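I am still getting used to backbone structure tokens and would like to learn alongside you. To get us started, please write out a protein record for me. Start from the sequence, derive the backbone structure tokens from it, and show both lines together. Once you have written the record down, we can walk along the chain together:
***
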Amino acid sequence: MQIENSGVGRILRQLRWVLYPRRCPFCDRVLGSVSACPDCKEELETLRRRPTFRLARERHYIKNLEGAAAPYRYAGCVRRGVLRAKFQAAPWAADELGVEMARLLFGSEVRMRGFGPEVETVPGLAIGYNCVVPVPASSRVRGYNVPERMARSVARAVGVPLEPRLLVRARSGKRQEGLSFDERLVNVSGAFCVTDPERVAGKRILLVDDVITTGATVTACTQALLAAGAESVFAVALATVELDAPRSPTEAILENSEEDF
């Protein structure tokens, strides 16, 4: 049993909340045992994607995926929350964002336990998937992988195993920010590989990322998983960049000056 999910892990989490009070991932306000931040509620509502969370294929490159979904637009406090998780040494923020993904995308109930939120498994969801796989970290410098931290709550909500080591980076690449659509596709082509094809073969996989921009990264991950024998891949993220109009394949996409590949 992993320490994080054991009785010892729960005690350590409670001690952490005492020493380092729980904060809102979106605005950094101290929340304690309050389940949701009242200061961010109104802005989060404006950033919700409607009428559906699914990404339109004509606006994103999600070739070979069964589909993709994200509950928020990548702007405002949602963008700040992702950047906090990625660049401010805040793994707790990634955990909180994963809870938000599980709640919105899968309808999971969120309960406060040990001063922190935990999601409940939603009956029946496991029928559609066999495992959850996070997009691999772009660098080891951070010390933790944001999509993996987010994927923990997603896996718990769906009721299937989290497989954080099945998909790895075969090579590094440039930062995606500032690259054109064509350059992004080239940048991630062949960048991922599966470590154990036998554990992928025939599986219906739920792929988790923090943000989907053009879809190039989740598509590259999907290509690696399908090549290893996966039956299907559906991608989810907390947020997506919604471009106002279709871009030229050679036009630079500047969604975030701090985002890395």
Notes: Residues 134 and 208 are 5 Å apart (CA to CA). The longest helix spans residues 91-106. The mean pLDDT is 85.
